[in-house]
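Ticket closed. Logging final result for Glutamine-binding periplasmic protein.
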Amino acid sequence: MNTRARLAVAASTAALALALAGCGAAAGEEQPSSAGAGLSELITPGQLTVGLVLPDAPYYVADANNVPTSGITKDLLDAVGKELGVKVTYVPVAWEGGITGIAAGRYDIFGGSLYDTTERQAAGTFIDFMKEQATLITTKDRAAEFSTQLDACGRSVATIRGTTDVTYAGTLSDQCTKEGKKPLTITEYPTQQDAELALESGRTDLGIQSVPAAEFAITQGSNRALVGTPFDGGFYVGSMMNSSKKDLIDAVHGAMSTLYKNGTTTKLFAAYGVKPAEPGINLQK
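Final structure:
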């Protein structure tokens, strides 16, 4: 029995219990919400609308027409939709409007490789499903120039505006200064494509990317090389939702939890060389 079926049974059971209770709630008193209330909070009935930023491989892998066909996040959310019994529709958005679009009601979920941070939790609720680290990257022909992160001191690095890339680069630059080395020259680009172009063209020496994304790109023949060890810590990756839609959050979280427990998520993620984490709410602390 999938999640939608269980929600329907739970709702029917709740209705029967109220009927048998005879009197029910007094006039003017709030009726308890049914277990299936989450699906009524969808922006479009019967459809889970997902905002995403492309390119974002391996979280979303797009075809020649820039339509996502597979990926870590896509495969998971497709399975969530099947579990809930709803259609999943993907809507490409600009990075700058992704998080604000959740509050504005343009989509039910935003995310792909989206890191859960305490700052972002103030703008929405995360259902986290994996944890990863980020790494410095460079082009293959320049890989020999960098053995450790500190070899990046005094060099230029491309980051994506409004992302944790900027934080990582700033922290490393501060570390360079403490070590008596030159700081990084940090440039913030509006999109991933712009940052990648800067690296490929030689306008910048380094970039920052998640380890899964960098490793996937390399397997696809990309001109990439990892530099040193990943940055310390790491972040949970999750689907961001409107905090006011608590029943919908519960429904999606329940579906993800079912998929995790029955092994579906592990099988889906194995195709991309990553492992899932047990789904949880706002796990980043």
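Residues 39-132+235-280 form a domain with the D-Maltodextrin-Binding Protein; domain 2 fold (CATH 3.40.190.10). No further action required.
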